[in-house]
Amino acid sequence: MIPEPSLQRLTIQQYERLIKNSEILSGGIERPKVFRDRSGDVWKIFRRRRRLTSDLWRPYAFRFIRNAEVLQKRGISTVKIKGLYETPHTEHWKIVHYGYLEGIPFEDLPFFEQRGFEALARWVAQLHQKGIYFRSLHLKNILWQLKAEQFALVDVSDMACFPKSLGVWRRARNFKALFRRPQDAHKLQKFGTLKFIEAYCDEAKLSGIREKVFLYLLALYNRGILKKGELK
Predict the structure, then answer these.
(1) Which residues pair with 153 in a beta bridge?
(2) In this structure, are residues 174 and 137 in contact, taking their beta carbons and an 8 Å threshold?
(3) 3-class secondary structure, 145
(4) What does the alpha-carbon distance between residue 174 and residue 156 come to, in Å, rounded to a whole number?
């Protein structure tokens, strides 16, 4: 079991100096979300948006850290955590400090190379085999690391990790996330949605009946993307 991450506190002066000397990657100078310091490390601010939320008993910053550690233990490239901080403004803010993750977002790669999408399909199958249910499975959250020649995950707070490989229901449902963004669905269709699913199934090696149930659920959950009778 992964222990609770230790929480440190930033003074107002430390926080303001950190923001002043950093490059804002997401958000604005008055309300930054993600920023990069002079050493190249990344800082991500988690703010509680509502009073009544699961963040009360299970903060998203804690989930982010735990998920990153689980992914690393299961051989999946992701961010390396360096610290967890509380800001002087309010205890409802948490800041996660992690090393910059090298890589190119998959959505920025030349999409029309068949090998890229086929490799992605097989990698998603490997995630599922390792019990990873990544709810933010979008092309912008998947990096391709050129030197290591492997995929990596970023923005890992919204994820579930299971001790065994995913069942067919969760596998099929996870594809909804991949098809949700119109730009992702469009690029998948350009490559060939059926070819993508075939590559996934080839890597997943589901038994005959499990594969049939998976394909049935996949068509059921993604009616706007997959036509009736298209998957057999």
Answers:
(1) 142
(2) yes
(3) strand
(4) 14
All residues at 6 or more sequence positions from 14 whose CB lies less than 8 Å from its CB, including other chains:
none
Q: Distance between CA atoms of 209 and 185, rounded to whole angstroms?
A: 27
Query: Does 8-98 carry CATH code 3.30.200?
Result: yes
Q: How many residues does the chain have?
A: 232
What is the rounded CA–CA span in Å between residue 32 and residue 149? 32
Q: What are 104-129's pLDDT values in tens digits? A: 999 888 754 557 899 999 999 999 99
Q: What is the pLDDT of residues 37-65, one digit of tens each?
A: 999 999 999 986 655 455 444 678 999 99
Type of residue numbered 174: N
- Homologous superfamily of 104-221 in CATH? Transferase(Phosphotransferase) domain 1 (1.10.510.10)
